[in-house]
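Re: weekly structure request thread

Next one in the queue (189 aa):
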Amino acid sequence: MKRKRLFRALRQGILCLAASALIWSWIFTFLTDTDHAHKIVLYADMGDFAWRELAVTLEETAPEGIRFVQAHPFTYALMNSADLEQADLYVLTAAQAEEYASLLAPVPDALRGSPLLRTMADGAQGLILYEAASGGGIAGSMLRYAEQPDADWYLFFGARSPHLSQEPPGLDTAAVETARQLIQLEQKD
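Done, posted below.
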């Protein structure tokens, strides 16, 4: 009899702990996240980079209406590829860009005149962040290109980004503004 009560109490305790964990995780997510319309999401296909520092730095100059900037390695999306598919910006090598071509959008018209604009062999377009030949890169203290030092790294735009309006005026172009801020980090490094 005592064992049955003990196991029943133990089972109820475990259920209460699980319910508490779910509630607290929901509260944590509610307080530290927002809908995609109010955040910019950047994914970099590199194993080690200062993603928190990069997010905080870009968040300091975030466009109006943007509450959060999130930066993640691709491994962050292993269990939920929907987040990866809806990202606003990607940091990739040319080879990685071929692999993820379905996720990428053309460079917006606002950045077409940039001296950083490059077109890959497969037609994908990105803004050069790191040139292997010179060894110099933008935001090198946060984006650690050493993982593939012989490859050039590019900034690409997400095809499903809600912040990449090609239409004039007044529509959301927060991805373009965030890309400009990332490019400006070159002067800080």
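The chain has a mean pLDDT of 86. The chain has five helices and eight strands.
Next request, please.
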